[in-house]
Amino acid sequence: MTLMLQKYDVPRALSLLALAAASGTIMALPATAQAACSLENGYADGLVSYVAEVESCLSVNSDFEARSETAIFDATNSQRARAGVASLNRRASLDRAARAHALDMAARGYAGHDDLEGRGHIYRMRALDRQVLASATGANVAVLDADASPAEIYEAISADSANRQNLVHDGFTDTGLGIAKADGRLYVVQMLTTVDGELESPLPLQVAGATNITPRVNQNYFRTAGWNLSDAAGNRLAGGTMMRMHDAAIDRTDTGYLDVLVQVDADTYVLKGPIVTRQ
């Protein structure tokens, strides 16, 4: 599965803007978050509870195949070198997202890009990485016998044509891997993402009052044009050219998806950022 750079509708983008004129660390969770790990019915609903349970489950489970994860990472970059494309960075937040999904599949005995509640790879990335600004996302998922070697895992991933394209896609910059074992099976998740920038500071899960948004994009040809906050159905909650979000834009029952708008020449594109809710 691959989702590529989304071009933002320019007339709509301009009208909306006119209207409003390493991550790699474990995030600090609100004190009220419920952190018990129980995967019989999947991860909890609601952004804060979801993230709290994911982090709890990752901290208490040791059934991950870390050596195989590293071997798949190395094999992917070797294949990319042979194809003449740049190596991928391994991003800790994507590791957590991939492991969270692998663990859920292993616990409930299913395979798919979405969990049984319909949350996909992009949701996991945006929930668990509080700084990411990404334009394209891909993922490879496989289930094999528990005694499969890293070479056999990589061969199984590569056997699918869409997976092979993901492995050597020259636009991807970062990856994360999760391999969980249960009931004689290995559940493998490989995430691949084009990270085009980051927020200067991690965005809290819960916003209160006014919150500054300071994006830093990686490419000089991107010019920051503004931001939008949308609900899960894609309805716009807030946005503008001033990089400042206020919690009044989010109802207490809503979740807001942050998009940073960037321009290249006359075109406007969307970089997907973290998900937030209201305190």
From TrEMBL:
Residues 1-35 form the signal peptide. Keywords: Signal. InterPro entries: CAP_dom (IPR014044), CAP_sf (IPR035940). Residues 73-190 form the SCP domain. It comes from the Bacteria. PANTHER family: SCP DOMAIN-CONTAINING PROTEIN. This is CAP domain-containing protein. It comes from Henriciella algicola.
